[in-house]
Amino acid sequence: MEKRYIIIGDGIVGSLLVYLLAQLGIKNVTIFTTKYHKASVNNQTWLQHGSLYDTSIEEQKTVAKLLAQQGPLFEELFHLQNHNRHGIMGVSSLDEANSKIDFLNKQGLDSYIINNREAEAKLSHFYAPDLIYLRVPDHPFEEGTILNICRSIGQQNGYTYRNADNILLQKTESNGNGYHVLVDGTKYIAEHVFVAAGVGTLKVIKGLDDISVPIKAYRSTLIKVPYPFGCSIEMFADKKRNVNFINVSSFNGKPTYLLGSGVRSQEIDLLNNIDNYKKINTWEVDEFIDHFKDYKNVQDILKKICKVEDMISCFKVEQCDEFGNPNYLPWYFSFDQYKGLVVGGAGKATLGLYTAKQMIAKSGIEINREQNYKHDIVLSEDIQKYHTMWYE
Length: 392
Ligand SMILES: Cc1cc2nc3c(=O)[nH]c(=O)nc-3n(C[C@H](O)[C@H](O)[C@H](O)COP(=O)(O)OP(=O)(O)OC[C@H]3O[C@@H](n4cnc5c(N)ncnc54)[C@H](O)[C@@H]3O)c2cc1C
What we know:
Helices cover 30% and strands 27% of the residues. By secondary structure, the chain is of the alpha+beta class. It starts with a strand and ends with a helix.
């Protein structure tokens, strides 16, 4: 009988697992999708070239390097063209600007300081005179682009997509892998199971109480504004105030503008009870809006923001180190006692491809020469070295 493969979750990691399995010529894949929170659609799935990170901190430098490599790779693999746009970033000092430019140039990416007059013309309301502005490379694919491509690849390969509410892994002695997947009361046994459930990960693996995955979730508040704001660039990141303003398209293709404020991120303690944290109350909205108060003509902006009801709560899931501190790196785990099971998350949407590739490597799927990926994902030795340092 043909082997069965199961993917739980269809965010960027689940979607890229579909893509990679299809590349390997693998059939009989079932993807369980849920109505639960999907970080990959609820925020911008922005593909930054590492420009947002503090490249003086070793851990962030690793992430920045991975991002710098993954952005162009996405374009290459999915034959996406003309998406190579630029953003503007405002930083506090000349030193910070120079170190970012230096880092990006070393990765082969173009970045330079732009004069304040040009920045003011481009940023309009969001111009703040206390910042130094630099042009940064970015890949603003429309929100959902990569997910949609992967889904159509899955469908072309005859993969089954099933909606389900309750998905749980349970221990079993009836098969050699030591577990089965329980979906809305029906048992499934598969040769390989990939859990890419983001914030729902711990809920899904709860039944396997002898394994643990060191992750933490953070909640951020975001606004999606369904009309333009008068900001004439694609992306603006203000590193001093920790605010982003981004022009994306929503899943259904309608243009959307997105305001994000990193300042509002807060740790979620009860990862298994995430629904309780979804509601955003009035004081949180006020606090969020407060982060935009330093900008020129802010009153005009605020008037528009206040009309917006589409204030959403978004969850990031990050791996913790041994002291419980989160870090940005992608995570993936396999377990001696549960054969064929891999659990993973991207940390950054940009690193979805890297994460999915690592999950397949950990799954024990044997890849022979004929079956090899049509496009392989090659990591430079430098990046491998950093990665080994952190994880092996
Ligand atoms: C505010 C914000 C801003 C961000 N900005 C960026 C950025 O600029 N650039 C960047 O690269 N990344 C960014 N990220 C991070 C990025 O969005 C995530 O790291 C990435 O999307 C995670 O992808 P994933 O596939 O691991 O998880 P998700 O996209 O969350 O997918 C999880 C899947 O599992 C399913 N699921 C959830 N719970 C359950 C359950 N109990 N049972 C079964 N299935 C379940 C979901 O429905 C979904 O299909 C941001 C995140 C946030 C919150």
